[in-house]
Every structure is written in structure tokens, then in C-alpha cells.
Amino acid sequence: MDMLLKAIRHYIPLSSDDEAIIRSLFRVEKMQKGQHLLQAGNVCKNIFFIEQGLVRYYAITDGEEKTSYFNKEGEFVCDYASFLPQKPSKINIQALETCTVYFISHNNMQLFYERVKYGERFGRLGLEDVYVNLINQVNSLYNDPPELRYQNFLTRFPDTGQRIPQYYIASYIGIKPQSLSRIRKRMSGKN
């Protein structure tokens, strides 16, 4: 829970009363490798915080899985496009490793906003971060060459690259695994 409280403190100050409220609103769960935190077609009912582990976001398009994002320790996980309006999700969120996650339900998140002194500010600032990351990712996908997208991936996930299968990384940067192998070979030759 300390890691979760620290992540929230990144956005807002917390009093001891606020911490007690947060402790009462969040639950903890162990997720097994391969287990889904969310499956497409279901409503995203929780915001998760990863204490330990790694997850990927993906959709299935024309029968092919397309990875769109990863989250690791110390990060929040949610399909906000489903969570906020409580509508069915178009994405899947899957544990790539055994994960320990804290989660808060949609109803409890409303209580968080009401009862934690700067709760609504936390929600706004958190969503601003999500929005900026999404815009940067979309811009990169449309404007940057694959090698630069891979370098951006390495910058964003420096300590997790070895934990993610290469075909998920290739999918994330929008190329085939063979192309990723060529990029990695060229980059290793530069060293």
C-alpha cells in the first residue's frame, strides 16, 4: 500500500485521514500470468495500481492481436474510455507476469473524489497524464520511423524490455517481429 500512497502523493498531498480513507477504499489481489484484468466487451469496473508485475493492453483486429500499451510497477491501469462512462470496453488488459494489484471500484472512486481532500484534483491530474501519453503515442505511431518508435519504447520501458516478449514489442511499435529483429541488429551494431 505504501507504493500506492506514494503514487497518489505524486499528484496531491495526503493527510493521515486521507490515507485511512484510501486504505478503506482499495482492495488487493494477486493476478496470475495470462489472467485478464479486463476483457473486451466487459465494462471496466476498476482502476488498478500495480505494486508488482507487468500488464499489456491489446485489441483483436481482423483476427490479430495488436498491443497498444504496457504498464508496470508503480503505475495505474485502466481503460478510461470504458471506466468513466461505464460502457463496454474494446480492449483487453492482461497480466504478462504474476501481478500484485490494488484496485478501486467505480463507486469507491466516486467516494475517493468526495472524501479525500484533493481527490478530484488527483483524478484530473491523473487523466491529464493519460491523455498526454496517449497523444504522444499516437503521434509517434503516425510520424516516427519504426527505429525511433523502438528507441522511444526502450526509453519508456528501460527496465522491462527483457520481461516483454519481442512479438508484443513489435506489435506495440506497429511492425512485424522480423522487422524488430533487423532494427535490434542494426542498433547493436552501432555500439
Chart the SSEs and their pairings.
Layout (H helix, E strand, L loop, with lengths): L1 H8 L6 H10 L1 E5 L4 E3 L7 E7 L1 E8 L2 E9 L3 E2 L2 H4 L8 E4 L3 E7 H10 L3 H25 L2 H11 L9 H8 L3 H14 L1
Antiparallel strand pairs: 1-8, 2-7, 3-6, 3-8, 4-5, 4-7
Helix pairs in contact: 2-4, 4-5
Low-confidence stretches: none
CATH C-level of the domain at 2-119: Mainly Beta
Residue fraction in strands: 15-25%
Which CATH-level-2 architecture of the domain at 2-119?
Answer: Sandwich
Name of the CATH homologous superfamily of the domain at 2-119: Jelly Rolls
Mean pLDDT: 93
Concise summary:
The chain contains 8 helices and 8 strands; from the N terminus they run H-H-E-E-E-E-E-E-H-E-E-H-H-H-H-H.
Would you write up a description of this structure?
Helices cover about 45% and strands about 25% of the residues. The chain has helices at about 1-10, 15-25, 80-85, 105-115, 120-145, 145-155, 165-175, 175-190, and strands spanning about 25-30, 35-40, 45-50, 55-60, 65-70, 75, 90-95, 100-105. β4 (about 55-60) and β5 form a beta hairpin. α2 (about 15-25) runs antiparallel to α4. The longest helix has 25 residues, at about 120-145.
From the structure above, extract its key features.
single chain; 191 residues; alpha+beta; Jelly Rolls; 4-stranded antiparallel sheet; 47% helix
